[in-house]
Amino acid sequence: MKLSALILVLFFPYFASAQSPVGASSSAKANEVASNTEKPTVEYVNAAKEGPRVIVTAGEIKSSNASFAQKVTSNSIADFGELELGRANFKITKNQANAKFAIKFDIIKAESLAKASEGFSGGAIGGMLGGLGGRALSSVKTTDKSEVWNIAMRWQAIDPSGDQLGAGMVEDRMELGAKGSSVMGVSSGASGGATMDTMIQYLVQKAVAEIDKKMKQ
């Protein structure tokens, strides 16, 4: 078998997948990634008990990491806070005068612990082979990037006079990443680990689990 024909055989699955029904392969890949990397949803043990009326205020982000600052804002954390506190059966208000206390979520630590990146480009080898097989190999590009983050979040419950009624801290580590490939202009990709939003929401869930236990009377 000629080398060019062998290369086409090796990379035929990429071309075949391009002919699959729209969304079929990407949906399967998304489900596979989700099953391998999702954090379990935190359940609130006192959710059946109605909590007081609260207001969620924007917290502080104490991180000098520019990459983190581009991906996470105080408002997005507060939005997650309202969502999860509502799921825990607290009553959310936008009027501070109607709230029994205010809750805020601060990022007190956001560290990128490690990065890894690798990839392959068939351009040089494909150029040497020439022909259809060489052009196919030249078009092959793959990427694999991952980054491990450690993030700590503090929650505080503050009454209208400014006194702190309760506080706590939660911390976790996650791997964020992505993989992708391209052959003859047909691209595929998948998220690995988790997204930053997933990690922040999971930390908010852990914080709300503590609030659910401590701040209902």
Task: Tell me what the structure shows.
The protein has a single domain, classed as Rossmann fold (3-Layer(aba) Sandwich). Strands 2-1-3-4-5-6 form a six-stranded mixed sheet. Helices cover 39% and strands 34% of the residues. The N terminus is likely disordered. By secondary structure, it is α/β, with parallel strands linked by helices.
What is the radius of gyration?
A: 24 Å
Give the low-confidence spans.
Answer: 3-37, 118-126, 180-193
CATH topology: Rossmann fold
Mind describing the biggest β-sheet? 6 strands, mixed
Distance between the termini: 77 Å
Domain count: 1
Order of helices and strands: HHEHHEEHHEEEH
Please, what is the oligomeric state?
A: single chain
Outline of the structure:
With 217 residues, this protein is of the alpha/beta class. 39% of the residues lie in helices and 34% in strands.
List the helices and strands and how they pair.
Blueprint: H1 3-18, H2 24-37, E1 53-57, H3 66-71, H4 74-87, E2 91-92, E3 101-121, H5 123-129, H6 131-138, E4 141-158, E5 164-183, E6 186-193, H7 196-214
Parallel strand pairs: 1-2, 1-3
Antiparallel strand pairs: 3-4, 4-5, 5-6
Helix pairs in contact: 1-6, 4-7, 5-6
